[in-house]
Amino acid sequence: MEQYVKELQAEMNEALNRISKESANKLQKAEKSCQAVQDLLTRLKEYVIANPLNGLADEILFFKEIKPAFLSELIFRREVYYLEANLPPGPPELVTGYLTGELERIRIYFQRNLSLYNYHRAVRSDQDHLLFAKNPDPGIFVSECAVEFDPRFCTVPSFKLSKIMAFERLNKYVHRLLDPAWTEPNEEEIHEEKVAPWTDSKVSLIELAYAIHSNSSIDHGKADVKQIVAQLQRAFNVDLGNYYAVFQQNIRIRKKNRTTYLDQLRESLIRRMDDADENPKYYQ
């Protein structure tokens, strides 16, 4: 398979380079690119069906690396086509509003798939056997769209990874439409901006989110729980999962103390203030 995949990748690169040089029309270029990559994906599928994957190592290699290399290219080219086709004519502020909305759509997709997105960004491999086997645990991911699904050639995590990879490229594409001088932050800048992760339990953060909502502390009470949870997830780089179920089936029905974490916060703060009263020089 390795040699065949290399030949297909070389064909893809050659075709995309040729299309890029043939036309300056963005829509035409994107449309031709989609067709070229789709044809190669069809050939790859035919090859895999005729030569079934042999064992877990082959499955991980195919669904984590080989197929996403082609599928992410197709998704990216399709997204560019739709973006350019729907780019509104008119004043710059209208275009800026549209592109800003596209960036928000990308951000939401990353947020909804935060676990896999972070797994990909961290270049992890420890869960590959769960994520990229031919028949992964169905409880890990739920398919998000009604696409042709052939288990010999498709898995949901592989599709989602491909879309994440495509959206990473689309994010850069949109940023550069907004600002041609835009450059991606370097590793040093990313490190400086890195947010300290949440290290307490997720249940505690969900309890805090509902407390903030109940107290109308965000946007004069106009923000709903979903918005507050989304902000906390971004702020602390954590995925809170089905927070509503946690609140209804865990926090709300506690027998002894319904506000365990909030009470703990209160006690910790009072203890700190008491310590500050006794040792003021340590709390300047």
Fold and architecture overview:
- This protein has helices at residues 2-22, 26-50, 56-85, 92-112, 114-121, 128-131, 156-178, 187-193, 202-214, 225-236, 243-251, 260-278.
- With 284 residues, it is mainly alpha-helical.
- It folds into 2 domains: 2-192, no CATH class; 202-283, no CATH class.
- Helix 4 (92-112) runs antiparallel to helix 7 (156-178).
- The chain is globular, with a radius of gyration of 24 Å.
- The relative contact order is 0.07.
Count of all domains: 2
Order of helices and strands: HHHHHHHHHHHH
Q: Would you count the extended β strands for me?
A: 0
Query: Given the helix and strand composition, which structural class is it?
Result: mainly alpha
Q: Unreliable runs, pLDDT <50, ≥5 residues?
A: 137-148, 187-193
Question: What is the number of helices?
Answer: 12
Major sheet: none
Classify the helix fraction into a percent range: 55-70%
- Mean pLDDT over all positions: 85
Rg over alpha carbons = 24 Å
Pfam family, one: RteC
Protein name: RteC domain-containing protein
Keywords: Coiled coil
Coiled coil: 5-47
